[in-house]
Amino acid sequence: MKKMYLLHSAYLLRLLCLLLGSCLTLHAQNVRVSGTVTSASDNSALVGISVLVKGTNNGTTSNATGEYAINAPSGGTLVFSFVGFEKQEIQVNNQSVINVVLKEDNQQLNEVVVTALGVKREKKQLGYTVSEIAGAKMAATNELSPISALQGRIPGVQIDQGAGGLMGNTKILIRGNSTLGVNNQPIFVVDGVILDNDVYDGSSGPRDFGNSLKNLNMEDFESVSVLKGSAAAALYGTRAINGVILITTKKGAQRKGLGVSVSQTFNMQKPYRGPDFQNEYGGGTVGAFFTDTRDPNYKPDESWTTKVFPTNAQGQPYIDRQMNRELENWGPRFNNQQVVDYDGKMTTYQAYPNNYLDAFQTGKGSLTNVAIDGGNERSTFRFSYNRVDSRGINFKNNLGKNAFNLRATQNLNKFLVADVTADYTTTEGTNPPSLSLNNYIWTFPRNYDTQYWMQRQNYIGYKGGLRNVSDVNEPNLVPGADHWFNIFENNYSQREQMVRGRLALTATVTDWLKLQIEGNFNNLYTKSEIKELGQGVNFTGGRYALGHSTKQTNFMKWLAIFNKSITKDLDFNGYVGGESQQYSLSFNNAETVGGLSYPGNFFLANSVQSQKSEGGIKTRRSYKSLYASADFAWRDQLFLQTTWRGDWSSALTYSNGSGNNFYNYPSASLSWILRSRSILLCLTGSVMES
Predict the structure, then answer these.
(1) DSSP summary character for residue 230
(2) In this predicted model, what pLDDT tens digit does every residue of 645-654 receive, in sequence order?
(3) Using CA atoms, how far apart are residues 429 and 497, in angstroms rounded to an integer?
(4) CATH label of the domain that carries residue 161
């Protein structure tokens, strides 16, 4: 029995060594693979491409420059995929660099997409790239911004989330920057109505209330098309130099009775990670190495010493209050010492590793959408109501939105169709976070207990207002008390009303000719308020500001659309049109000066000194344009597209009416589809003459 036991033990030992050696061998076979993913059509970098180790959950995505990196078995297989492109599998074969070129999915070439000016084309006819996504997929993200909803869904598009809270701007770039200007973002066109995609530049203060895109309701989107490249967007002129995102909204359908759709979604957001901080040392000075004011109660022989406490008159060590200087974590190592805190009370000297995340809350949001539609053989309609209630992860950052949309179509006779859209949205946003310096990096040390110091009694001075470090009777000398005072005692709000209307008439003249005439407007009315409580004794001081702005856009367009077969091998389609647009931005702002006569009462007449006011027309411009397109298809495989647009801009006109205010943009593109394989040759050009 003893011999049998020894034999079994030796066998198990050899088996354990064999398994351990196998594990080490398998681990050694993993290699770090990196490379770049590009498009076969134009060699551009593809963003958001899924890279997955086949048969596992190990994956990553390509970044803004198309680059990726992943750990994979040397004998494994990488799978590259994205919507609209052919999936590609590549064996690793112990390679450390694998560059991949993805082709567009040929099965999608016969799909019809919406292109410039809302004209529908088959994908195979285009010599440029158009990516399309269903509106339902965007609505399912429950995002407030349509830009955020595009994240990871369109190749070649880079999206960066802003830091402005719920309503802050989200930046979108199509194939990188195209100019040296501040705004390199594409324009948005909703059913022919052009919306400005403004960026936050800090000129209106440190708080970002976003642009008018947040007023859109993604539940109303039927489809979204992204036009990439100059040839794709040439018919929109200089406004589309950075690309175009076309949005087509839903309309009613012929049915018996009424169709009712109700959706309700909820979401929660919780910050899970902040900057990486050290948690070994707390607040304290670096001694004579630093030029800022040093606490006078360090011992005379410690002028060049770090990691020590200053001491008070009773000989008690206390935490350096860092008055009149920025963060210095040169205090002693944390060891649960008993010391005097900033407010004169004894406390345990320790790190608070989560003090940064404690400065945020759990965000919550709900979105309710109700839609009713119906129609018969002559008319259709769709009406929707959308309600958004959201609370951000930043304290007091809230957003409420009510959106109403109506779209109706009517066959006036057998030749003429009317399409009418009316849209009204109200949005109210409050207290987006200040985009100034981060106090947790510049002021608060690692021993700062956020949950304690953010309480009102711990940041308000004993005489009211903000605690005064120069007052010898002030018991609370905590650094950065103004941070919580500004968050909880001040209020910043912006209320927007967006009114959008559109009327389009389409006449079918012959089986190859249609005429369209369209008029639309888009008005945005904004009211902003600033209420700042005084920080002086008994809350003296303070500020109240009130501002209004009106942005108005009026647009008229006519279009003749041709679609005719010249011979059995040669087809022609195109259009000729023109448009006129007027844009104006007016404003008026007023604010108190010298503080408020009655603290905590916010109205303009409460100004200590004469209030300051300004207003007028900030911007006014107009465009008049002509454009044309001629597209030829030979045997349904060779496609030539040419466009031309000419603009007359008031920005280039002198006050006496003189000036050369005309410039134009020709473009051409060619695509060739051979034996179901896509060989795309894209020749594009852009010319400006003024």
Answers:
(1) H
(2) 999 988 888 8
(3) 12
(4) 2.170.130.10
